[in-house]
């Protein structure tokens, strides 16, 4: 649909606008698509080429240095910049000067002529993962803290589970220990409150690229399976990989109760498009995990040997059997440090799966007896 004059909107007097001067091209494809225009003495406008038929149609909005910096960094979507204040629609004529200009509302321009919601200035700015919690009771100004925590913690844990899986395979090489947390603790580049949405960008550590690519491939496969309706089991190259993927996906499925009814996942990692998980996905993943039968609750005694802060792990030695690789929670950090410093024996209780003990509690042997 070609653009036309907005119905019921009076045209702005061009005499008070002055000459349009191309200032800076921000993004182009055969011709400038997003750019800035100078008018008058110091006024600067952000311009989006909305259509190009017999005329060039521009959507215009005021901008300043802060707006441009946010656009260049990828922290401000183009559409948000165009609708943050007043907005104009300009029909351009010869010499790239306006023939008619109207002040408009967003609804005056058909959707296909706007930049898509959430799209940044440059393709490389697109977040790795966009995670959105959806439910009728998740509304701006009244979002439960539990929703925010679920989205942030579920994403962080999903990436960590898969990175832990790769790090336990020494034949494929590992990452530097001091980079581990920076990789799975993905920076949040954007909040949005249409429901509740977090956009996660890539870490600055360039070493993370290869591992995150593998994480993305496995996570996408697992999410697609969880969102599907066929009854086939999830297929993977090994039981260990299968379990890691399912556990990563589990934390991103909607809880059985509460305000979150659906989870939407998009971004660069979702190459097949946005994946929507409904509440039925959670029991599906849980049932698949139960079929693996690789999990058991254990109580182990020993001494904390190697201690890796970045990977949140330690080796339990002097167990009377083989050493045990353990992963601990952040809330157990102080107890682990105390055990390292004392070099005394401790009792560790947790869940053992895939050759790793996931710590639920750690106490000195004397107090746990």
Structural class: alpha+beta
Give the helix level as a range of percent. Answer: 25-40%
Biggest sheet strand order reads: 1-2-3-4-5-6
Count of β-strands: 16
Q: What's the number of helices?
A: 9
How can the largest sheet be summarized?
A: 6 strands, antiparallel
Describe the secondary structure blueprint for this structure.
Elements: E1 21-29, E2 31-39, E3 43-52, E4 56-62, H1 65-73, H2 78-83, E5 87-92, E6 98-104, E7 129-134, H3 145-167, H4 180-184, E8 188-192, E9 196-200, H5 208-227, H6 239-250, E10 262-266, E11 275-278, H7 281-292, E12 295-308, E13 313-317, E14 324-327, H8 333-342, E15 345-353, E16 356-364, H9 365-368
Parallel strand pairs: 14-16
Antiparallel strand pairs: 1-2, 2-3, 3-4, 4-5, 5-6, 7-9, 7-10, 8-9, 10-11, 12-13, 12-15, 13-14, 15-16
Helix pairs in contact: 3-5, 3-6, 5-6, 6-7
């Amino acid at each position: 649909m070609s653009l036309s004059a907005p119905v019921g909107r009076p045209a702005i007097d061009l005499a008070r606008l002055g000459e349009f001067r191309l200032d800076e091209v921000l993004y182009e494809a055969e011709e400038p698509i997003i750019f800035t225009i100078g008018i008058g003495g110091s006024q600067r406008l952000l311009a989006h080429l909305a259509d190009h038929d017999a005329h060039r149609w521009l959507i215009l909005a005021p901008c300043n240095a802060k707006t441009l910096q946010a656009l260049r960094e990828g922290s401000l979507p183009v559409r948000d910049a165009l609708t943050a204040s007043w907005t104009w629609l300009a029909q351009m004529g010869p010499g790239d000067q306006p023939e008619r200009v109207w002040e408009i509302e967003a609804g005056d321009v058909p959707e296909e002529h706007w930049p898509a919601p959430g799209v940044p200035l440059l393709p490389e700015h697109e977040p790795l993962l966009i995670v959105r919690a959806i439910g009728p009771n998740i509304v701006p100004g009244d979002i439960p803290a539990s929703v925010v925590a679920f989205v942030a913690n579920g994403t962080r844990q999903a990436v960590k589970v898969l990175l832990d899986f790769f790090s336990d395979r020494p034949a494929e090489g590992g990452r530097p220990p001091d980079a581990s947390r920076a990789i799975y603790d993905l920076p949040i580049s954007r909040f949005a409150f249409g429901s509740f949405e977090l956009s996660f960008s890539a870490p600055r550590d360039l070493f993370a690229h290869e591992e995150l690519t593998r994480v993305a491939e496995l996570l996408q496969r697992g999410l697609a399976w969880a969102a599907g309706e066929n009854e086939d089991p999830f297929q993977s190259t090994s039981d260990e990989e299968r379990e890691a993927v399912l556990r990563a996906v589990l934390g991103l499925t909607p809880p059985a109760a509460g305000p979150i009814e659906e989870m939407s996942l998009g971004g660069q990692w979702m190459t097949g498009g946005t994946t929507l998980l409904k509440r039925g996905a959670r029991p599906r993943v849980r049932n698949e995990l139960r079929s693996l039968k690789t999990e058991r609750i254990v109580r182990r005694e020993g001494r904390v040997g190697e201690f890796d802060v970045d990977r949140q792990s330690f080796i339990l030695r002097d167990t009377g059997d083989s050493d045990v690789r353990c992963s601990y929670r952040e809330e157990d950090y102080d107890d682990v440090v105390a055990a390292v410093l004392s070099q005394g024996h401790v009792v560790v209780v947790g869940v053992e799966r895939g050759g790793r003990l996931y710590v639920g509690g750690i106490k000195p042997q004397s107090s746990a007896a």
